Amino acid sequence: MPLTKVEIAPGFNKQVTQTGAEGKWTDGDFVRFRYGLPEKIGGWEQILESTLIGAAREQFVWADLDGRRYAAIGTNKILAIYYEGAFFDITPLGTALTSCTFDTVNTSATVTVNKAAHALEPGDIFLFSSVTPPTGAGYVGADFTTKPFQVVTVPDSDSFTITMASAAGTTVNGSGSATVTPYIKPGALGFTYGFGWGTGLWGGGQQVFSTLNGALLDDTAGTGGSGTSITLASTTGFPSTGTIKVGAEFISYTGISSNDLTGITRAAAGTRSAHSSGAGVEVFTGWGIASLSQTLTTDPASWSLDNFGEKLIATIKNGQSFEWNPINSNSNALNTRATAISNAPTASVMSLVSDRDRHLIMLGTETTIGDTGTQDKLFIRFSDQENISDYTPTSTNTAGTFRLDSGTKIVGAVKGKDYTLILTDNAAYVMQFVGPPFTFSVRQVGSNCGCIGQHAMKYVNGAVYWMGESGGFFVFDGTVKSLPCAVEDFVFTTKNGDNLGVNYQNGESVYAGLNHLYEEICWYYPKAGSDFNDRYVCFNYQDNTWVTGSLARTTWVDANLYSVPYATEFTSTGVGSFPDVQGVTNINGSTIYYAHETGVDQVDTAGNKTAIPAFIESGDFSLNPDGTNAEFFMSMSRFVPDFKTIQGNAQVTILLRDFPSDTEASSPLGPFTVTGTTQKVDTRARARFASLKIANTSTDQNWRFGTFRADVKLDGMRG
Q1: 189 within a domain of the structure (yes/no)
Q2: Is the separation of the CB atoms in 190 and 506 below 8 Å?
Q3: Strand order in the sheet with 4-6
Q4: For 71, how many CA atoms within 13 A lie in the half-sphere containing its CB?
Q5: What pLDDT does 533 receive?
Q6: Closest to 476 measured CA to CA, from 433, 420, 525, 403
Q7: The three-state (H, E, C) secondary structure of 588-613, written as one string
Q8: Which pLDDT belongs to residue 287?
Q9: φ, ψ for residue 509, nearest 5 deg
Q10: What is the pLDDT of residues 322-360, one digit of tens each?
Q11: Whole-number Å distance between alpha carbons of 208 and 192
Q12: CB 314 within 8 A of CB 321
């Protein structure tokens, strides 16, 4: 009998059943399609041993007029520049706090800084200057001024603590003096519900952080198997009763005993799930008892980054806008911080530069410049042409304003070839330069097509693609259309709040990354129950195919100025090492910087390799060679592997089932190891249906699969 060829179309199809997916690929990880064939994706290398403090929310690459390349990375804690193999801290600074004093305790490295109404929170970063050390404590000025510090605890509104590199030599109170200048705060690490009268700090409270000391299982118990208490690393600053947030789960408590929260109730809001020891814990305190209302929310910190000529323009979401010039008068730009743009709005959802006409556009901004209370998230303001410090319309400039009328807020915007596409939570608008007297025209081009997050859109080859606010994908190529997606149910459906579908509550974290080397747009998103991006869905815009996978990336820039894509990964348990902050803890998490498409493995800065466990699996296909006699069992005696390329070896598994409801089982002789010289593989497979799985498990392995041919024949009607 001649060999039977199994035809499998490129791309994943998860909209059908496993047995209904004959001729389709249904699942996989770390794979892509190229020229119709599935292959393992490229590897990645960690660029620097240093990791950034916090979670990266945006990344932008540009060059100055001399061709020097810069990458700006904004996290929820800092703004950093990557240049020529090193990070540089350009985080803007806030208002200085003068006349601070110190309390020390003999033999303790914990120092209390006294300043009335300081408004700092645990985890805030700041600089000391003009230091007179506390008398007799054994410290000199350089102990305070050589690096930034982190606020460790906040005992009250008039004091906070830090950790010194060495213990004090005596106990003093109110000694010495210093100026404290805090870093500008981009915002929260992740999405949070609002508590009390004032979401976040409004209303006089403070956000308190800690970590779990012991794992929490997905049951009613607390840490250590107790059903009534949860142990934290510290309960300093926690209210006597309240509600904490661990991951996406809210847990109420009625008391505190040492570092234990007692009288706990699991899943007071959100979905109960397991949490590892060291997982972050947060609670907001405010006026009165914390509320579980889910109507008030705080989005995670984010940035919008762009360049105005050589200058970097950086806007904190719902905050200020800053500029940084790589070439400045003191020839020391990399050691110079970004500064606020003069006369610019002080609260905007985002900003971008209209390149051709040279305007800086502020989206979702203030109706009265300098008054954050007038922020209108549908209001747009743009600068005078060539002047990013003039936003007041006059008869002699091109500055102006207008307001969108559909939706509740501007979510984001992206530049097209000769337009800017603005997306609200409900609609799409095109903004185009038309010149004086109106400067820009704005027209609505779509409705019921809102975007899920600020960075969830990408322009390529004349079209803008984005992930929808409540599901689905969209494309604008002159008109707004739904983008057919063969994995849509998988990506946008959640079951009991705990599967691989997107976590809509954390939709603001979704990040769209373009990889033009392989004609892909990948959306990195947090799955249900997750606070941070840990899944992806990729669209090949050349072949109109889709794949899904488990790569965790928070930002991505395409290969352009750099020869390969650069991306970031956040780890909540890591301790960031850049900048070198005294007293830093893991409450901030850390961001790793990678170069992608660099070999076939994960490689750290020491050259150590970790395998990328790629696999792909097909839907069920009938073993019957002619499609008739479906009631018969079939036997497969051998198959002929066909790989376009193979490095090392690959594992081929024949998965069998007799009926659609059966659990699939591997062929008795499988999985089969295949190399570049394997001509045929003998198997003993017998079933009505079979599916094909290609995988690798070790380092230095790579593959690109071709076709599948097998020797099959009828083998009776009974099992």
Answers
A1: no
A2: yes
A3: 4-6, 708-714, 634-640, 681-687
A4: 26
A5: 96
A6: 420
A7: HCEEEEEEECCCCCEECCCCCEECCC
A8: 42
A9: -85, -10
A10: 999 998 645 578 889 999 999 999 999 999 999 999 999
A11: 13
A12: yes
